[in-house]
Amino acid sequence: EDQVTQSPEALRLQEGESSSLNCSYTVSGLRGLFWYRQDPGKGPEFLFTLYSAGEEKEKERLKATLTKKESFLHITAPKPEDSATYLCAVQERSGGGADGLTFGKGTHLIIQP
Amino acid sequence: DGGITQSPKYLFRKEGQNVTLSCEQNLNHDAMYWYRQDPGQGLRLIYYSQIVNDFQKGDIAEGYSVSREKKESFPLTVTSAQKNPTAFYLCASSSTGDYGYTFGSGTRLTVV
Predict the structure, then answer these.
(1) Chain A residues lying within 8 Å of B102, measured CB to CB
(2) Strands A107-112 and A10-14
(3) Residue B104 touches chain A, beta carbons under 8 Å
(4) Mean pLDDT for the stretch of residues A46-64
(5) Looking at per-residue confidence, does B99 or B21 come out higher?
(6) How far apart are the C-alpha atoms of B75 and B66, rounded to whole Å?
(7) Is A29 part of the contact surface with chain B (CB cutoff 8 Å)?
(8) Do the Cβ atoms of B102 and B27 come closer than 8 Å?
(9) What is the pLDDT of residue B97?
(10) Is B95 on the interface with A (CB under 8 A)?
């Protein structure tokens, strides 16, 4: 069974203090790993998809990386508006069964001014 | 602008009642999904549909039902058989070959 574990559960940083969020996964065959941002009371907003180990993607202050067992979301010099819950999800490469994403529980990030 | 519209934003259900959550998309996406989100838990898949008039159960389908009569619409009914329906419900869609999911803004269902 797919499993996605995110750490830490919560993280409080000062503005400008860089850090990384972790997403470890176990899946028989990875089709894709996704990062989303979710603000309170809203739906998740798509950030990145990573398909293979060694792949990296960047968007503003965010950079996502992927290995065979985990993904990191690096946040460089964060601002208060980066405060949100960051969700990781995996999609298994399979010929049948559920086609949906398996989500981790998320990391609640707070950036203090 | 293209997107997914969920309604209502807030919904209250009495014990023994069935309620239906609406999900409409104008992205021309083939696949649509329903997820449930509870505090401290990840999103869990309820039902998904990859084509009109066809849908599949997800991990927690018991107590829920869906229909897919039109490509644009994928309503979710929470039946009285669902014993713990209070949660945040999210609808999503994706296009075949496109691995990015677009989510709606969610419906918060509360049992009163």
Answers:
(1) 46
(2) parallel
(3) yes
(4) 95
(5) B21
(6) 6
(7) no
(8) yes
(9) 59
(10) no
Give the amino acid at B57: K
Q: What are phi and psi of B96, to 5 degrees?
A: -55, 125
pLDDT tens across A13-54, in order? 999 999 999 999 998 888 889 999 999 999 999 999 999 999
Q: How far apart, in whole angstroms, are the C-alpha atoms of residue A105 and residue B39?
A: 9
Tell me: pLDDT of A98 over 50: no
DSSP-assigned states of every residue in chain A: --EEEEE-SEEEEETT--EEEEEEEE-SSEEEEEEEEE-TTS--EEEEEE-STT-EEEETTEEEEE-SSEEEEEE-S--GGG-EEEEEEEEE--SSS--SPEE---EEEEEE-
Tokens of A39: 């603000």
**The residue to which tokens 């750490």 are assigned:** A7
